[in-house]
Design brief:
mainly alpha, binds MU-OXO-diiron, single chain, Ferritin, elongated
């Protein structure tokens, strides 16, 4: 059985994953409206789906452990990107925030000796490590490319292949 505090913090994580999913959906839609960003568009649509899966996994865990999973109310995502670099900086910042939030829950699971939740969270810890690494790598590449249009063309093509290879 989850403690009330654990139930609350896990439901907060459900909301964070749902917000990530909607933000990435907005990013995908933004990219789709720009010329020639087909790879980036597919990347963020897929990323949005992944976050939805993260959200549902948490929601069902809360219910399985005797808590009540809350489907959250969400704000409309703001879309203020001027460049692809800008888009990917937001992506990295969002993943860093999610990692921090997961670590806070791991910390609580230790303090409460809730080893089932601690065990459950290991999947998220690994997932966040991978997502942050991928977001950092993509940001590094974009920094190298700068405003070079042919570099951006190749970046978009590569990110499409990255998704198909998974
Ligand atoms: Fe589920 Fe990328 O955080």
């Amino acid at each position: 059985m989850l403690s009330k505090e654990m139930e609350k913090i896990l439901n907060n994580q459900v909301k964070l994953e749902a917000e990530s999913s909607m933000n990435y959906l907005a990013m995908a839609s933004w990219a789709e409206c720009q010329p020639g960003l087909d790879g980036i568009t597919e990347f963020f649509y897929a990323q949005s789906e992944e976050e939805r899966i993260h959200m549902i996994k948490l929601l069902r865990y809360i219910n399985e452990r005797g808590g009540t999973g809350q489907v959250p109310e969400l704000k409309k995502p703001s879309v203020k990107y001027k460049t692809v670099q800008d888009l990917f900086k937001h992506f990295l910042a969002s993943e860093i925030a999610v990692t921090k939030s997961i670590y806070d829950i791991v910390d609580l699971s230790f303090r409460e000796k809730d080893f089932a939740t601690h065990n459950f969270l290991q999947w998220y810890v690994t997932e966040q490590m991978e997502e942050e690494k991928s977001a950092r790598d993509l940001n590094d590449k974009l920094e190298m490319i700068g405003s070079d249009k042919s570099g951006l063309y190749l970046f978009d093509r590569d990110i499409m292949n990255l998704r198909t290879a998974e």
